[in-house]
């Protein structure tokens, strides 16, 4: 048997062995979406595709921030394939650092451009809004606060609460306010919050719970948190407050493909699944989000989506929060 023939036979044998023992496909996703909402959808993806999902979740009190730091720490040897974020600001910042690689999912073709990165680094889907949760036992319907200015109004002194604006959607919201108002007016707003005795709580769900218990008459939180209270029959109502004259502030989910992640093919399939119309509807049905990003949705309240200049607003907003709210 010639050496070349033996080499060819050995190569064929190795090929057959490799083909007979395929690696079990898997994908690693880091997500700030509440586990109660994200886990069932990821399990459904596993069932439909046969791809095992290894998920890393974030804590309520530090939504997104912990995962952002972890992704940056691991960027030379990424462990994650996909970042599924419950908001968009820190996704924008990670995209700026070069953490993501472009991927234009065919499932996102019907998503408006304002909810997609122009260079394909992230895709948005599933909208929540920043709303008031109001205790109906304490606040009669005619007295319900209707705008963000209520947080600083004398009649609501010591009766309102918000989450600390360092993390998650509250941080995104406040950064957008900084970008819209400018430094001087934003400083006046923060000063008024503190002067009016607005309570700063650990997170959005904590705000909801404080209003449910009657510790606060109303609070600023997200639509999904209020929905939980409504579904439980708690004495609250949801109000979409006007914010800086542009409607209620909207926050949407985002997903990005991590550059040099270990399972790029499975990662693309997961992104296709997440941004699809069917999955967005599943998120709405579960209560994780309340509105669609897609055109043609009727009956939606007037929403303010402020993504321009947010990266430039994040750090100045955070610095002023520390200074004026004494956190």
Structural write-up:
By secondary structure, this protein is of the alpha/beta class. The protein folds into two domains: 24-126 and 250-298, 3-Layer(aba) Sandwich (D-Maltodextrin-Binding Protein, domain 2); 128-249 and 310-325, Periplasmic binding protein-like II (D-Maltodextrin-Binding Protein, domain 2). The chain is 41% helix and 17% strand. The protein contains eleven helices and ten strands. Strands 1, 2, 3, 4, 5, 6, 7, 8, 9 and 10 form a ten-stranded mixed sheet that branches. Strand 1 (26-31), helix 2 and strand 2 (52-57) form a beta-alpha-beta unit. Helix 5 packs across helix 6, helix 5 crosses helix 11 and helix 6 (183-195) packs parallel to helix 11. The longest helix is centred in the N-terminal third of the chain and has 18 residues, at 3-20.
Notable traits:
globular, single chain, 327 residues, alpha/beta, D-Maltodextrin-Binding Protein, domain 2, 41% helix, 2 domains
CATH class (first level) name of the largest domain: Alpha Beta
Range of strand content: 15-25%
Please provide the count of β strands. 10
Shape: globular
In the predicted model, the low-confidence regions spanning at least 5 consecutive residues are: 1-22
SS field, number of helical segments:
11
Query: Structural class from helices and strands?
Result: alpha/beta
Q: What is the second-level CATH architecture of the largest domain?
A: 3-Layer(aba) Sandwich
Distance between the termini: 79 Å
CATH topology of the largest domain: D-Maltodextrin-Binding Protein, domain 2
Outline the biggest β-sheet: 10 strands, mixed
Estimate the mean pLDDT confidence. Answer: 89
Radius of gyration, CA atoms, in whole angstroms: 23 Å
CATH superfamily (homologous) name of the largest domain:
Periplasmic binding protein-like II
């Amino acid at each position: 048997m010639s050496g070349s023939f033996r080499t060819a036979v050995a190569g064929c044998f190795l090929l057959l062995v490799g083909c007979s023992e395929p690696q079990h496909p898997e994908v690693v996703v880091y997500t700030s979406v509440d586990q109660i909402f994200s886990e069932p959808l990821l399990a459904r993806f596993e069932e439909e595709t046969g791809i095992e999902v290894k998920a890393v979740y974030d804590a309520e009190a530090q939504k997104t921030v912990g995962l952002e730091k972890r992704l940056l720490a691991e960027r030379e040897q990424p462990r994650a394939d996909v970042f599924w974020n419950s908001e968009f600001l820190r996704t924008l910042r990670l995209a700026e650092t070069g953490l993501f690689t472009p991927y234009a999912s065919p499932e996102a073709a019907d998503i408006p451009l304002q909810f997609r990165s122009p260079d394909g680094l992230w895709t948005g889907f599933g909208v929540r809004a920043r709303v008031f949760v109001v205790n109906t036992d304490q606040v009669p319907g005619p007295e319900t606060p209707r705008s963000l200015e209520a947080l600083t109004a004398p009649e609501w002194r010591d009766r309102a609460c918000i989450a600390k604006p360092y993390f998650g959607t509250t941080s995104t919201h406040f950064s957008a306010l900084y970008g819209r108002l400018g430094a001087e007016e934003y400083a006046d707003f923060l000063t008024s919050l503190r002067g009016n005795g607005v309570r700063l709580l650990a997170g959005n769900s904590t705000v909801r719970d404080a209003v449910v218990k009657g510790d606060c008459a109303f609070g600023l939180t997200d639509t999904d948190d209020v929905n939980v209270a409504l579904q439980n029959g708690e004495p609250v109502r949801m109000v979409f407050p006007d914010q800086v004259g542009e409607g209620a502030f909207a926050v949407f989910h985002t997903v990005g493909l991590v550059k040099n992640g270990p399972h790029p093919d499975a990662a693309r399939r997961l992104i296709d699944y997440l941004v699809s119309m069917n999955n967005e509807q599943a998120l709405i049905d579960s209560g994780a989000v309340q509105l669609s990003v897609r055109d043609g949705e009727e009956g939606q309240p007037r929403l303010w989506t402020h993504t321009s200049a947010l990266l430039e607003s994040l750090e100045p907003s955070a610095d002023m929060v520390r200074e004026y709210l004494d956190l």
